[in-house]
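Give me structure tokens for this 253-residue protein.
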Amino acid sequence: MPAVKPFDSKVISLLQERIQRIRTDRGAIYLVGPIKLPVNLFGETAQFQWYCWLNCSEVTDDLERIIANLSSTNLAEYQQSSVLVHGDFQNADHALIRFHSICHTGDIFGSKRCDCGYQLKQSMKHIAEHGNGALFYLANHEGRGIGLFSKALAYILQENGYDTVEANLQLGFADDARDYSDAIQVLKALRTKPVTLITNNPRKLDALKKAGMDVEDRVQLWGDVSEYNENYLKTKIERSGHLNEGQGCCDND
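Here you go.
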């Protein structure tokens, strides 16, 4: 095998200061950032700092080795998660966070079958207005952890009378197969102070508390109810235990 051509020392120097290694039970998470990311949010520009992370079984401080291995792996075939940070997230006394599971159909295409696209934009808006916070975009959570192809199969079942929980179960999956451990490791690397979680899902709350994070509050997020997603939202409450404290999330005016 031919030797790897050494990388330009200036390139290595520029990248070295923006890469943080986080040890895990399975190896390491390599966190890249912060990177300036101005975002169009409801017609106005909000300034965020963007981080992306990669899970590796290899633990090394040799940045050249890490970069050399990237070119031999088609990372475009895999999903990598990231986080948008706003304000002084590390030091602010109060900060909002959201663990947002990727939804190809809702976040990208604007599907009305769910409320994911709405929750994504509203969470970013809440964080920007609050002044400090972070939105974790979890790329391996499609379909509550079953993947995009399996989600398409689940949609077919849903069109034939199965609810979202039943559809996943009928395909041999758990109701909710999502794992938040990597996101929590990254969160701990970015902030140690208490956080307020934007969620309706008690499982996300439990995951943070079990990992030792101090959660000072929770903000629920309901909205964008329509004839297309009303049953989906009711299933979240009635079968998945999502919290709905007096908001009437499924009242469609």
